[in-house]
Amino acid sequence: VGAASSLSSLVKGGKRVILVDEVDGISGSEDKGGISGLVEILKKTVYPVILVANDAWDPKLAPIRDFCELIRYNRIRSNVVASVLAKICEREGVEADPLVLKKIAENAKGDLRAAINDLQMVAEGRRSITMDDLGVLSLRDQEKSVFDTLKAIFYGKSAQGMIMAASSSDVDYELLMQWMCENAWQHMQHPKELADAYNALSRADVFLGRIRNRQHWGLLSYVFALMSAGVSLSRETSGGGAPKYQFPSWVKDMSAARARRNALGGIASKVGEKCHVSSKEAFLSYLPYIKFIIEANPEVGAKLVKWLGIEPEAIEFLVSKEAAEKVKKILS
Fold first, then answer.
1. In total, how many domains does the chain have?
2. Residue 129: what are its φ and ψ, rounded to 5°?
3. Does residue 289 belong to any structural domain of this protein?
4. Are 128 and 175 within one domain?
C-alpha cells in the first residue's frame, strides 16, 4: 500500500484508486506498520484511498477515522437478492421455485454472498429445487450492529419492541447508553422532549450505579426500559428524520485521554531511567523542561529525544503538533 500511494498508474493517462479491504482486521503487532503506518500513508498519498471495514467504529480505527469520510452501505433488499439468485439459476439451468429463492434471500438478511453460497448448497447436484430442499439451511443468525439497534429503538412501534432491541443487542449496554446519549438529540428538537429523554437516561444510569454497588442484577430490566423506551417515547411531536449517528464523544475523549496518559507515562519512565529518578519525579519535575526545550529549539529537542530513547510518535502527546512534526522530520 505504501508504494502504491505514490507510484503513477500503469495505464498511461489513467488514474489510480487504492483499495484496502478488511481494515478492522489489521493487527498493530502482527501487521507491519499497522494502523499507524496506514495513517502515515493517508497523510502522504496523492491518490484516493478506499478503506473497507466491517466495523468502522472499532476503537483501534479511531486514528484513521479522522482522515476519512464514512460511507455506510446498507444491506441489500431481499427482493433484489432473490432476483440475482433467479438469474444465477437461469444461467446454471436450475429450475427454482420463486418461493425458494425468496426464502433463501430472506434467510441471508441482506448478505448477497451468503445467499449465493446457500443457493449453491441447496442446488448442489440438483436440476430443480423446492421448499423441501431448504432443510439443509439453518437460520442465519447475524450480529446486530449498533446502528440496527438504534434504529429499532428510535423507530420502534411499541415500548416492548424497543426494550427487546436494547436487551438483545450485541452491543454492551453501557456503551449502548453512551450511543443513546450522544444521538438522542437528533430525533428530538423540542427542549421538553430532550429534557425527558436525558432524564430517562440519567435514571437508567442511577440503576446502573446500584447494580455496580449492590450487585442487584434484577435492576437491569429497568436500565433497558429507561434507556430505550424511556428515551424514544419522550418524543411527542418531533419527526424521526434520517440522522447520521455519531460515535459517543465521551468514549472517544476517554480513549484519547488514556492514550495520552500511557504515552506520557512511557516518556516519564524512560526519562527516569536515564536520569536515575522515579517515574513520578520525572513526570512532575523533568517533563515540563523537556517540553520547553523541544518547543523552543526543535533541533536540540530532537537530540534530547534521541538520547532519552523516546519514540518520536510519543512526542505528540507532550508538545504541540507543530513542534512534534519538526522533531520527527529532524530524526527521520
1. 4
2. -130, 140
3. yes
4. no
Residue 130 domain boundaries: 78-136
| pTM listed for this prediction | 0.49
Binning pLDDT at 50, 70 and 90, where does residue 140 land? very low
Q: What is the pLDDT of residues 59-73, one digit of tens each?
A: 788 888 888 888 888
Contact 235, 258 (CB under 8 A): no
Q: How far lies 165's CA from each of 149, 156, 174, 228, in Å?
A: 6, 9, 14, 8
Domain-embedded: residue 103: yes
b/e per residue 90-113 (b: at least 16 CB within 10 A): eeeebebeeebbbbbbbbbbbbee
* Three-state helix/strand/coil letters over 71-125: CCCCCCCHHHHHHHHHHHHHHHCCEECHHHHHHHHHHHCCCHHHHHHHHHHHHCC
Q: What was the pLDDT predicted at 108?
A: 82
| Whole-angstrom distance, CA of residue 175 vs CA of residue 57 | 12
Predicted confidence (pLDDT) at residue 233 exceeds the cutoff of 80: yes
Tens of pLDDT, residue by residue over 277-309, are 999 999 999 999 999 999 999 899 999 999 999
Distance from C-alpha of 80 to C-alpha of 102, rounded to nearest angstrom: 10
- Torsion sign, CA atoms 128, 132, 135, 140: positive
Beta-carbon contacts of 241 under 8 Å, excluding residues fewer than 6 positions away, are 186, 187
